[in-house]
Amino acid sequence: MFYKPEDGHGLPHNPFNAVVTPRPIGWISTRGADGTDNLAPYSFFNAVAYEPPQVMFASTSAKPDRDDTKDSMANIRETEVFCVNIVEYAMRDVMNQSSGPWGREIDEFADAGIDRAECATIGCARVAAAPASLECRLTQIVQLPGAANFVAFGEVTGVHLRDDCVVDGMFDVTRFNPLARLGYKDYSTVREVFSISRPGE
Fold it and tell me: Where do the Flavin reductase like domain residues begin and end (predicted)?
């Protein structure tokens, strides 16, 4: 089949998210200017540069108590820092709990029973037991077409790697099985890996 998004797809559910998969999940922790911590997962997330290391995530909807965006982006506008926590399979349920449409006053760490730790280079909390956390300073927020589509880019200023995930000097994803977002209500996890050398290597 072929369809133009502007004309609609004619299917029971939008297939777009099922096409662009799997997507890594950035579990974004932020702190508002009032000191309230926030934690929410975003599947429009990825690394975008090596030197200096940089990441991005996109927020694509709004909450009534945040006008044109959600808590994460609103907090980043105020403080210009955020932390990306990597989600392991074992944390799938608490990650999902933190995705709820809670009011801006709700601390998702407390609500979902997630242990937190302070970041080392920025004023923000992180998920203490995450396999990895990337502390970031905002470089820019870009507004995309659409009413509530914003992308935050950040330079990574600190990296936390959980000790049990570092094996023979390499970060081993099979030790924690990263969670990935698919389409609809579906997720997947990485349990097997294989290597391919580039031509000339």
Answer: 18-173
